[in-house]
Amino acid sequence: MASTTLNNQSQTPTNSKARVLFASLVGTTIEFFDFYIYATAAVIIFPHLFFPASTDPTTATIQSLATFAIAFIARPIGAALFGHLGDRIGRKATLVAALLTMGISTVLIGLLPTYGQIGLAAPLLLALCRLGQGLGLGGEWSGAVLLATENAPKGKRAWYGMFPQLGAPLGFILATSSFLILGAVMSEQDFMTWGWRIPFISSALLVIVGLYIRLKLHETPAFQKVLDKQKEVNIPFKIVVTQHFPMLVLGTIAAICTFVVFYLTTVFALNWGTTHLGYARSEFLELQLIATLCFAAFIPLSAIFAEKFGRKATSIGVCIASALFGLVFSSMLESGSTLMVFLFLCTGLALMGMTYGPIGTVLSEIFPTSIRYTGSALTFNLAGIFGASFAPLIATKLATEYGLYAVGYYLTAASILSLLAFLMIRETKHDDVNNQI
């Protein structure tokens, strides 16, 4: 019996390091590309094409940003759905299903008729597709993080866990570049009429690449142990809520800062900069595109810090820095200096890289393997509701009624809230989490 077990274990297929890291990176790059092209379009395109022409520009933008928020409401539902599948049948199959859900929804957005063509049905269909995007992303992110961390060698979980996080800046760069290129090679009329559809439809090619890579993966070693010992949980959601509720709450609050700092620096800043600060769309997008390099550069740096000093200490330090950034938010953004606005974007996105890099590792390590997909997905996506879904909308209302300084205080408050949560979360750097079935 012992010999048979040993032979079975020795014959268990393993994933190569390069395939694991590339598969976790390419999937999240595609997912965030799809997500960010919607975020950009929600500010510069959808208010004009999918909402009544009689509506004033501010109201149209708020309605468009409301559809942007729908995906964040859907993400916890997707987290529960795909988390259940991921903790029951495995990480690989669930990752494929999540990618398909996201990809199909994105392509359909590029094919939708506008309000001028079918009336009220247009924004309703747009909201439905946005719902599909949210469901897919709700299951994608956590699966990609687990694919990386559950295949990581000892002492490398934070480093492996930051690879799927790199998909966020890469997806943002691809999304922003696509709109900049289209705006440069075609007239404004052509861009608004049909050119904006190209990024949405072309995402189908990226999805095909992602599916090809992921279908060649084997199950992660950590979850394979769960399968071998028949320790799958019947209803992972129930176990997370009833037995791990404190970690669910703390993990959710801890991740709020990550979302707030990002969406204030990108979606809100783009909207405010092009509507109130006098920047042309292409000019502000170029500034954001260059600043996103800071986002990408600071993610690996955060992983190095998380491996050396611990996930908790690194995250606490970044929360403090984000809280201080909120105090100078308004003075930098409305300084009237393009250089200062650029520094504002670089600072905000650098902080985003520092907080985003280790958050996947933190949220995956605080739950045992048998419910890790559901637990980490729920915490991250619940944080998306509180920290991101209405962040651009809330910030727009605050800035309009009280001034930009109120938006900065909003960021500071969110950072302090996450700081308090991290103070109560245990350090998991030295935990043997893959044997915590």
The biggest beta sheet reads: none
Task: Categorize the overall geometry.
Answer: globular
Mean pLDDT across every amino acid position = 87
Uncertain spans: 1-10
DSSP strand (E) fraction? under 5%
The name of the CATH architecture is Up-down Bundle
CATH superfamily: MFS general substrate transporter like domains
Number of alpha- plus pi-helical segments: 20
* Structural domain tally: 1
As a whole number of angstroms, the C-alpha radius of gyration is 21 Å
The chain-level structural class is mainly alpha
CATH first level: Mainly Alpha
Helix content: over 70%
Taken in chain order, the helices and strands follow as HHHHHHHHHHHHHHHHHHHH
- CATH topology name, in short, is Growth Hormone, Chain: A
β-strand number: 0
Please state the oligomeric state of the protein chains shown.
single chain
Q: How far apart are the first and last residues' alpha carbons, in Å?
A: 22 Å
